[in-house]
Structures
1.
Amino acid sequence: MTDIEERHREKKARIKAAKDRLYGQKTREKGLVIVHTGPGKGKSTAAWGLVVRTLGHGRRVGIVQFVKGRRETGERRFLERFPELVEIRVMGHGFTWETQDRARDIEAARAALAEARRMLTDPELHLVVLDELNIVLRYDYLPIAEVLAVLEAKRPDLHVVITGRNAPPELLEAADLVTEMRLVKHPFREGVKAQPGIEY
Amino acid sequence: MTDIEERHREKKARIKAAKDRLYGQKTREKGLVIVHTGPGKGKSTAAWGLVVRTLGHGRRVGIVQFVKGRRETGERRFLERFPELVEIRVMGHGFTWETQDRARDIEAARAALAEARRMLTDPELHLVVLDELNIVLRYDYLPIAEVLAVLEAKRPDLHVVITGRNAPPELLEAADLVTEMRLVKHPFREGVKAQPGIEY
C-alpha cells in the first residue's frame, strides 16, 4: 500500500468513527414531513419509490393525487392491484388551465384535502403521499395556513410526502426533509417524446 | 374576472399553444440513459418509482445493485415478490470501506457489470436499473470507458437508470436525462434516526 493510499484509508476510518458516534445518537423515531420539489424529474417518482419501500415492510400507504393527469399512469395501474395495502384517491378532473372552471377546481382541491386530513390520522397507514399538492398551493386553490394545520394534526409517527414544483416557503419551513430535483439534461430538448414507464 | 386574471389566462393559453406545437414535434421513441445523482435523497428511490411505473405497463425490469447495503430493504423485499416481472441481482458483499479487500470488491463489481451487460441486451426487458453504479466508478473499481461501452451496446429501445452520487462527467455526457437530487433539509441533523420505509 502506498503512503497516499494509507493516508486515504486512515482518513476514511476517522470519518467512519465520527459518523458512528453521530448516528449512534440518532435514537428518535418520528413521522417525517418530506417535500420533493424543484423543476427536475423524480419528484412523484421518488414518492412511488417510498411507497414500494413501505409496502416491502408490510405497512399500508395512502395516496391523494391533487392533479389528475390526462392519461392513466403505470404507477397507478400497478398500485391499484393492492387495494388492501394502498388506498388511492384521485382528484376528479383536470385543472383550470384546461377546464376554465376555477370554482370547480377549488372544490375538488378541498375534497382532496379532506381525504388527506382523514388519511393523516388513520391509525392503519404508515405513509401518505400528497401528490402535486404544491401545484394546488401554487394556484392558490387552498390556503397554505389550512394545509399546514392539516399537517400539524397528523398522527405523530406517520410519514407524509408532498410533491410538486414551487413548494411554498412556509411548507419548506414546516418540513423535516426537503429534496430539490434539479434538471441537468432532458431528452425532450432533442425531439424524444414522452414514453410509457418513464414519463407516465 | 379581473383584468389581471384575464391577462394571466391569456398568457397561459399562449404558453399552452407553444407547448402543443413543441410537443407535437416530439415523435421519436428512444431508450434513454437516465442518471440520478447529487448529494440529496431520492436517487435510488426514484429508480424504484420508474420500476413501478414500468411494471404498471406490463413490462419487465432488470435490477443490478452494485452496492449491497447492510440491511434488507423494503423495495427489494417487495419487488422480489414478482420474480416473473423483476429480475434482481445483488452484488455479493459490502465494500472496501468495510471489508478492506479491494481486490474482492473489484471482482464483485466486474461480475455485476457482466450481469448489466447481459440485461442491457435482453429482448424481454424494458428498463434496467444499475443501482449505485456511480459509487463503483467513483472508487475506480471499474474503468469508465468499459462502462460506457456496455451502455453503448444496449438494445436501442431499452431504458437504463444509473444511480449514485458523484456521477463522472463522461457518464453525464453520455446520458440523455440527468437529474441532480439536492439536499435542502435533512432530519438526521436533528437527531432522527434512519427509519423503515424512508431510508431502507
Note: Residues 135 and 168 of chain A are 10 Å apart (CA to CA).
2.
Amino acid sequence: MPGHLVVLSGGLDSTVCMALATADSGRPPLALTFDYGQRHRTELDRAAGVAGHYRSEHLVVELDTTAWGGSALTDPSIDVPLGGTEGGIPVTYVPARNSIFLAVSLGVAEARGLDAVWIGVNAIDYSGYPDCRPQFIEAFRGVAATGQKRGVEGNPIAIRTPLIESTKSEIVLLGLAHGAPLQLTWSCYQGGDRPCGACDACVLRARGFAEAGVDDPAMP
Amino acid sequence: MPGHLVVLSGGLDSTVCMALATADSGRPPLALTFDYGQRHRTELDRAAGVAGHYRSEHLVVELDTTAWGGSALTDPSIDVPLGGTEGGIPVTYVPARNSIFLAVSLGVAEARGLDAVWIGVNAIDYSGYPDCRPQFIEAFRGVAATGQKRGVEGNPIAIRTPLIESTKSEIVLLGLAHGAPLQLTWSCYQGGDRPCGACDACVLRARGFAEAGVDDPAMP
C-alpha cells in the first residue's frame, strides 16, 4: 500500500485532503505542518487536532519566514485586510509559500519512501495567490521529475491536488461526505481566539458553507 | 541597480558565485546560507567568512532536515563514502535540497525586491545529484514564473547558474580571475577540522586545483 503525505495547515481544504488521502490509501497519511511564523498560530493547534483525529504521524517543520517577511501573514507591521476579497494578489500573499511547502514535502516524502504529496490548493474560491493555480502545480511536477533521485529514476513522487478546481461549497460537501472533522478546522488569517469573520479566508469559508446549505460546525 | 541573492554554502562554487554576482551588479549581494543540519558544519563558519569578505548581509536560514533524514550528510547513521566518486546518485544526496534552497531563495528575493537568485550548481565535475542539472534548473524557472506574484506579473526573479557547465578547474580559474577568497572556502562533506581528502567533494576539489595548475589556498 503506498504511503502518502498531506500538507496540513489545519484549515478546511487541507483537512478535506486528509480525508481523501486516507480514503485513497486506506491508512493514515503522514501529516506535515509548517510553523512559518504565521500570525494565525491557532491553525497549528488545529492541525495537531486533525492529525490526531486520523491517528497520523504529525511532523511540524519550523521555518522562520518572519526573518524576511513580505506578507501581512508574517509581518506584524502589515495589516490583514478586512474589506472582503480584494482584486489582484492581496497583501496576505506569502512569497513562495507553496513552493517552500512542496519542496520540503517532496524531500520528506522521498526520505520516507512515500509515493504522493497531497496539497489542498484551490484556484476557484481563493484569495488569488498564484501558487494555488494549476500552472504552478504543473511546474512543480517538473521539479519532482527532474530534481529528485526518485524522479530521474522514473518514479517521481506524485503531487495530488484534488480540490484545485472545486468551489468552496463543493469542498464542504466533499468533506462532510468523507467524515472530515470540519469542526476542528481554522481558516481565519487573524490571530484571535475566534474567527474574525471579515478577512478573505473567513468570507470565503462562510460563503462556502452558506452555498452548501449547512452550518459551519467550527463556528461557536 | 538590481539587487541579487547568492545561495552561499561556503564552498568553492558558491564563493565564486559571490564574486561573479558582485562583479555583475557592482554591489554586495545578499548571501543566503542554510543551516539544514549538515554534518559538515564548518561550512557555516566559512560562509560567514565569505559573506564578510564581500561585506554582504548574511542571512542564515535554519531548517532541521535531520527530522526526516535520508542522506549521509544529515543522518549520522549513514557513513559518507570515502572511495572516491561513485557511479549513480550517491548516499550523500539530500532529498530535494536544492528545491528547498531555491524555493526559500525565491521567497526571500521577492520579499526583499531582488531581481536574481544565483546558485553555484555544476553538472560536470559533481557528485551526480539530479538537482544540480540544467533540466532541474529549467523546471524551477517555471516555478518562479508561475508561482510568484513577480512571475505572474511578467517580471520573474531570474535563476542564474553561471557555473553549471564548467569544469572544476575552470571554476577555480574563474574564481582566481575575480579575486574570490578561495582560501576561506570549505568543500569536505565530513565534519572534521581539516578536509578528509577522500570524500567526493575533496576528490573533485583536489582534481580541479591540480588541473588548473594552482595550489589550493585553503589546504594547510
Note: Strands of chain B lie at 4-7, 30-35, 58-62, 116-118, 158-160.
3.
Amino acid sequence: MSIFETGLDKNDANFAALTPLSFLKRAALVHPEKTAMIHGRIARGWAEEYARCRRLASALSRRGIGKGDTVACMLPNIPAMMEAHFGVPMTGAVMNALNTRLDAATIAFILDHGEAQVVITDTEFAPVMREALSLTERKDLLVVDVDDPEGPGGARLGSIEYEGLLAEGDPDFDWAPPADEWDAITLNYTSGTTGNPKGVVYHHRGAYLLALDNIVVWSLPGQVRYLWTLPMFHCNGWCFPWTIAAITGTHVCLRNVSAAHIYAAIADHGVTHFCGAPVVLGMLINATDDERRPLERTVEVMTAAAPPPPAVLQRMEEQGFHITHVYGLTEVYGPAVVCAWHEDWSALDPEARAAKKARQGVGYTTLEDLAVLDPETMTPVPKDGETLGEVMFRGNIVMRGYLKNPTATQEAFAGGWFHSGDLGVWHADSYVELKDRSKDIIISGGENISTIEVENALYQHPDIVEAAVVARPDEKWGETPCAFVLTRDGSDLTEAAVIDFCRANMARFKAPKTVIFGPLPKTSTGKVQKFKLRDQAQAL
Amino acid sequence: MSIFETGLDKNDANFAALTPLSFLKRAALVHPEKTAMIHGRIARGWAEEYARCRRLASALSRRGIGKGDTVACMLPNIPAMMEAHFGVPMTGAVMNALNTRLDAATIAFILDHGEAQVVITDTEFAPVMREALSLTERKDLLVVDVDDPEGPGGARLGSIEYEGLLAEGDPDFDWAPPADEWDAITLNYTSGTTGNPKGVVYHHRGAYLLALDNIVVWSLPGQVRYLWTLPMFHCNGWCFPWTIAAITGTHVCLRNVSAAHIYAAIADHGVTHFCGAPVVLGMLINATDDERRPLERTVEVMTAAAPPPPAVLQRMEEQGFHITHVYGLTEVYGPAVVCAWHEDWSALDPEARAAKKARQGVGYTTLEDLAVLDPETMTPVPKDGETLGEVMFRGNIVMRGYLKNPTATQEAFAGGWFHSGDLGVWHADSYVELKDRSKDIIISGGENISTIEVENALYQHPDIVEAAVVARPDEKWGETPCAFVLTRDGSDLTEAAVIDFCRANMARFKAPKTVIFGPLPKTSTGKVQKFKLRDQAQAL
C-alpha cells in the first residue's frame, strides 16, 4: 500500500454524491429573491421555487413515492415541469417526462413499461391522457392535474390539482441526496421511428456534469435569462432545468412556441439565451413583420436535433441571433458535441463561416471521447473529411442504458462505445460532421449519397423553406435521391428548376431525380419523419 | 431490486474516472494551434503543450516513476510548472509543489515526509535546494534542473536539465487515466505557523470539479488570457493550471511579480484575468506612474488569502480592476467560497459596495456545504452577523486528508465537517464573513475583538499602506490590540494620531492601545506572519 492509500478515506466531510439537486439548494441560499421563474404573470424567486420543489417532494413522499418509483409528467414548458425535475428526484424517485405530442397508445405503453406510480398531466392534454389512462395496465395511478392559469383550461382527470398537491407538502422538507450518484434521476423514451420506444435512464452524476458543462461550453453568465423554446420533455431540456439553477439564472417559460411569442418574450423579459431545433430557427427567419420585435442585444441560440443548413445559420446571424451548434441524442443527455469556435473562422466569408458552423464538432468538456469508427472493426476512420463511419461516444454523460432492455443496451454499448447510429466523417481538424443516419444514406449506382448534403444544397435556394431527401428505389441505380420541399408562399418553383439548381451546386449524380412539393411530416420533437417520406417515395 | 437497478451497470462506454488530465487532451484536439502558453519570448499552442506534458510523463515513466511515487517541484510560474501539473499525474505519480520561499530545512523535511523520488528545481533556487539536498534523507533522488531561458541562470544541481528530460520522452505517450478518481493527484504542504507543515492530499475528482467551478463562478470565457501572479505552488494555483486547459484559454507566465511586470503583461499580452493575494493588489494600487500602463479594458481579478480591506477593494475598482473576492484554504483546493454578487449591490455607494464585497460569501457551486458552527456543539450559529463560530466545509472539493497524519486528519474532519480554524459570523443573507483565525482573536476585558475589524479601520486612513493587528498581553485587560502599520513614504503619522483615528471610526475599546511603525513580515504566500508580530508585541 502506498502512502497515498492509507488514512485518506472518504468521509462525510470530503465526499458527497454528485447531484444537480444541490444546485437548487445553493441557488435558494445565495439568491433567494432573484427571479428564478417567469411564466406569464407569475414571477418567483429562487427561495420560493426551492420551497415549491420541496413541497412537491414532501407531498409525493407522504403518498408513498420513493426510491425505485417512477413519476410521469405530461407537461408543457411551465413551472410545474421545471419543479418536477427537482421535486421528483428529491424523493428518490425517477422523473419520466412524456413527449406531449405522442398518441394515447404510445403514452399507455410508456406508463406500463416505466411502471409509473404517478402521472402529472396538464389539462391541455386531457383528451389524449384520458384515452391513455383507459389503455394502461397501471391501475392504481395517482393522477395529478395541472390547471395552469396560463393554459387553455380543459378537463381534470385526477384526484387532485397540482397546487393542491403542493399544499399538502412541507416547504422545509428534509430531502436526502441520492445514496449513490449512479442512481437514476430521469427516464426519457426515444421517439423510436420503428418498434416500441426505448427508455433511456439518466443518473445524477451525468445530469450534474452536463448541467455544469452547458455553462462552460456556452460561457453562460449569471445574468442569463433563458427562454424555454426547447421542450423540457426532450432529453430533460438538454439538462437546462439544472443548468439554470447551477448558474442561478432565470427561467422564462413558454407554453406555445411561435415566432410572435419568442420575439415578445425576448422584448418583454430580456431573454438572453434559448435553445431550439432548426424548426424554431425556421420560424424566426420566416416571421412576418407583425410578429417581429426589435432585438436590443444579440441573442444567443443553441441549436441541434437536425444539422442546420448553412443557409439557415447565415440568415439567423444576419437577424441578430448568434448560433452555437451542438449535437447529441437522448442517450447522451441531449447535447454532448459542440462546434467549438475558432477565432480565425470569424474572418471567413459568411458562407464559409456557416459551413464551418454546420459541422457538429468536438466532444463537450465532460465527454470522455468522441470518435468516428468503422462499426465492424471498431477502428477510427481516417481524418480525411470523406470516409464515412459511425459516430460513437464514451464518458460520464452517456446513459446508464435502456430500461428493462438488456439486449438493446448491450448492442448500444458493444465494444465499449455508445453507438449513435449516425454516420459521419472526421475532418482533419478532428471536427465531426454528420452525413446521415445509418438507415438514411442513399446508395445510388454503388455511390453513397448523403441526404444531408442534398438538403443543404436545396436550402441554398431562396424559395425553399423546408427540405428533406430520402432514397427512392430505382431499377437501374438501386436508389436515387427523392426530394420533398416546402416552398415560400407564391413561389412557382418547378421540379425541373429544383433539379437544375442542385446540379449547378453539387455533383450531378447527387442531385434529386424526383421532387415532391408540400409540407413535411414532423415528429413531436420537430424532426422530419423520414420513414413516412420513404414510404411515400417507395409508392411513387 | 428496482427496475432501475438491473442491467444498467457501469461500463467503458458510460463511465470514466473524473480527472483534469482529460481537459488537456481535449484542448490539444479542439484548439491545437491556439496559444496555450506565453512565457517571455516563448509562445506554444495546446498541441505542443500536450506533447511536452506527454514527453514529461513518458520520460518519468521510463525512469520508473509511477503510482504511489512523489515528484517534488521547486519552480516559479513558468511553463515547466504548468506541465508538471499534467505530466506528473499522467504517470500515476503525485505532484508535490514546493513553496519556493521556504528555507532549506523545511524543504528537506517535506522531501523526506512526502517521500519524493524526483525533484524538479529551477536554477534560481539552487542555493537553498543544494542545502536542502544535503539535509534530506532521500538519497536516490533524481534531481532535474530547470534552466529557464527567462531565468537568472545559476548552478545546476542534478543529472539532467528539464529540456533534456523531455527529449527522452515520447510525445505520443499513451498515458492512462487514474484507475479511481479518488486517487491522489497532488500534495501541498500547509505553511504551518507552528510545528511541521502538514501534507494536504488532493484527488483527481476534486481537482476536476474545482477546475470547472472556477469557470462557472468567474464566468470565464474561452478567450481568457490568464496571468500567473498567484504562485502555482499555492494550492496548485487554485486549480487554474487545470481550469485554463478546461476552457482552452491562454496561460501568461510571470517569473517575477511586480507592479511593472503585471502592467506590462496586461498591455503586451492582452491579459484579461488574474488571481492574487491582497499583497498583489497593494502593489498595483501603490504603483508609480512609471510602472503603470493604461488598461484597455476592465481586468478581472480574483483575490483571497487575507480578507481584503474595503478601502483596498475600492481603490482597485477605481483603477479599472474588477474584483471577485473568494476565500479558501489549502485543505479545500484553494478557493471554495465566493462573494457571489447581487445585482442590486452595484447601486450602493462605493463604501457600502466594498463592505459587501469584503465578505467571504457563500460556497462554490461544487462545494456541498459551508457553515459557521459552534465547534463544541457542532450546531450552526444564528445568522445575525454577530455570533462568532468556526467556518466549516463539506463536499467533494475538500482534501482527502493529511499525509501520514491520521490524528490531524481525524481532528480536521471531526463531526463530518472540515474545521477551517477560521472564526466568522453568518449574516442574515447566509454570507459568511471572517472575523479571525481562532488563534488570532483578541480577548480584552472579556470582550472579543476581531483583529480584521481593527485592520479594516486602519486601512481607511489615507497614509496607511499595510496594517496588521495582534494581541498584546496586558495585566489589566488580559489582552489589548497592538497595531503594526506601514505608512506611505513621507507620512508623519504618529501613534496618537492612529489611535485617535481608530477611536473615531469604531468602538473605542477595539482601538489599538499600541502602534508600531515599519514593514510587516510576510509568509511566502503573502500572508502577514502574525506569529512574529505576536512575539514582538509580547516582548514590548
Note: The longest strand of chain B covers residues 464-474.
4.
Amino acid sequence: MEIASYVHISSNIHQTLSELLASDSFTKVIVLVDENTKKYCYPLIQAVLPTNHGVIQVKSGEEEKHLQTCTQIWTEMTNMGLDRKALLLNLGGGVIGDMGGFCASTYKRGIRFAQIPTTLLSMVDASVGGKLGVDFMGYKNHIGVFQEPLAVLIDPVFLQTLPDRELRSGYAEVLKHSLIADPTHWNDIKSKNITEFDWLKIIKHSVGIKLYITTNDPTEKGLRKILNFGHTLGHAVESFYLEQPGKRLLHGEAIAVGMIVEGWLAQKLGYISTDDLAEIVDTFIRVYGKVNIPEEDLYAIINHTLQDKKNENSIVQFALLESIGKANYDQPISAELMKESLDYYRGL
Amino acid sequence: MEIASYVHISSNIHQTLSELLASDSFTKVIVLVDENTKKYCYPLIQAVLPTNHGVIQVKSGEEEKHLQTCTQIWTEMTNMGLDRKALLLNLGGGVIGDMGGFCASTYKRGIRFAQIPTTLLSMVDASVGGKLGVDFMGYKNHIGVFQEPLAVLIDPVFLQTLPDRELRSGYAEVLKHSLIADPTHWNDIKSKNITEFDWLKIIKHSVGIKLYITTNDPTEKGLRKILNFGHTLGHAVESFYLEQPGKRLLHGEAIAVGMIVEGWLAQKLGYISTDDLAEIVDTFIRVYGKVNIPEEDLYAIINHTLQDKKNENSIVQFALLESIGKANYDQPISAELMKESLDYYRGL
C-alpha cells in the first residue's frame, strides 16, 4: 500500500529499496547507522546496496543527538567527496533519522536522503512529517529544519531486532494517533496486548493519520499542533530526566506520562469526562507503569515547557483532547495548573 | 523602486525598516552585528527599533563564519528565550547575512529574518537569492540551506561606513552581473572610476539581474549557475589564501582573478575573442591590480575546485562567457586547462 507517494510500507524492504536506488542516478549511496543498526539492521539491506556504497557510523542514543555528532557526519561526508547528487540512507530510529536528515539537508545546502526507520517509534512518528534536527542546550530538536525525505521505506521486519521496551515506547505514538484522531481505533486497541498485533496493519493506520495531519499543515501553523498532545509536559519530563542517567526515560515512556497529565488538564477544562480520563489513565498505566517524579523535580519540569518551540511570549500552549478521538490546540495553561496536573499523576 | 516584493532599495532605511517592523506582530526583534557594524551601522537604525530589541554581536571576518560562531548565536537566541515569532535583522556584510540567515532558518526549525546589507558586495550579491550557510573544513558555505529572507532592506547610506578596499571588492560582483547578462551596462561602466557612481542606480540594476536569475532558478538546477562565472577558480583562490593571514584576499579581489582566468578559458574554448579577453583583463587589472600567485600554490588551488558544490563525480563544471554580456554553464574543464589558465594570469 502507498499512502503517500514517497512513503512505502511493505514487508519487502529489498524491493522498495531497489526501486528507490534505480529511480535516479545517484553518484554515491551512503548509509548512516549506529552500532546497533550496523549490527542488526544493515545486514538486512546490504545485499541490495551498490557495491561502492559508504557507511557512516555514529554512537547510538538521544544523548548523542547534537551538533558535535553532526560535525562528525559532515566531516565524513566531506572526506568521501560527496557531491549534490549523493543519497543518504538513514537506517535507524528517530535519532538517526532526525540527525541524518538534518545533516543531509544542510550539506552543500542539501542533498537527498531517505528514511529507513528501524524502531516502531520512528516508523509511525519521526520518519514522516519532515521535522529534522538535533538537541541543543538540553532542548529537544532545538536546531533543525523542515524538509521532506525523498522516500520513507518502512518494513516491520526491523521490529524483530528491537528490545521489548523500545517496541512499547513506539506504541505510545500509535495510541496517541488514535486518541487524537480515531475513536474507533482507540477502542479497538486500548485493551490489547502489544504481542497480539499485526504490525504492518497497525503501522499503515498510524502513519496514515500522521500523514493526513502533516500534509495538511507541513509547517505547523495550526492543525499539526494536535500531534503535540502529550508532548508539552512529556517532552519536559523526557528532557529533564535525560540528564540523569539512572532515570532516563524512552520517548514513549515520557509522553505516556504527558498524555495522562494532559488528559487530566482536558478533564479539568471540561473537555472530557472523568470516565474518559479513567480510561486513558488505565490504558497508559497498564502498558507503561508509573514513573516516580519527586516533588522537587516539578518546577524544573514546568520551567522546561517555557522554552518549548510551541510557545509564544512565555504563555504555554497545549494541544488537549476535545473528546476521545479528537484534539484541539493553542490551549493556554498556567504554571499552577501544570503543577496540579503533575500532582494528580504523582497521586495515582 | 521595488524590484521584488521583499527587496526594498531606497535611500530611506528608517522608512523601509519601520514598515517591515509594523508589517506583523513580532514577539521580539534582535539585531545581529559585528564590532564594525555595531559601531558604524547600528546607530543609523537604532532610532526605529523597538525599545526592547536585543543585540547579538559576533567577531567580524570570513574566518569567523563557522559552526562555533553559529553555536554562539544559537546560545544567545536561546538565552533570550526567542520564540518562533521573533525576527532577526542581519546588519552587516555577507558573513553576517549568510551566517545569521542560517542560524535563523535552523533555530526552532526556522524563524523569520531580514537582511540589511552594509557592504556593496552583500547588497548586490549575498543578500538576494536565499543561499545561506557557513564555511566548514576550509570549504566556503559548505554547510547551509536555501531560504529566502522575509525582507532585504538596501540603503547606500551604509556604503559611507565602508573602507575603499571593501567597496572595490563589492564592485567585482557589479562588473560580473554586467559581464554575464548586460553588454550595454558593461560598456557603460568598464572604464569608469568607482568614485563616479550613483550607487542607488548601480545597485538597483545589479540586484535586478541577480533577482531575475535566482527567481527563475532558485535552487540552481540550471540558469543560476551562470552566477558562478569567475567563482570556480575565484573561490579556490579565496579559500586557499584564507588560511594564510598575510595573503588573505577579499571576495571581490579573488573573483576578479577568477574572472580573468575563466575569461581566458572562454577564449581558449573559442567563445570570446582575444580582444574581448584583453578588455576583461584591462578592466580587472586596472581596478584590482594583480595578485601574486606562486607556482607552488597552483596545485592546491586546482585541487580545491574538486570539492566545489557545483561539481559532480570529480568533473569540474565551469560557467563561462559565451560573449561579452552572455554566459553559459556546465562547461567541463580539465585540471591541465585550469593550470594553463592560472599560468596565463601569472604571466600578465
Note: Chain B has two domains: 2-161, 164-346.
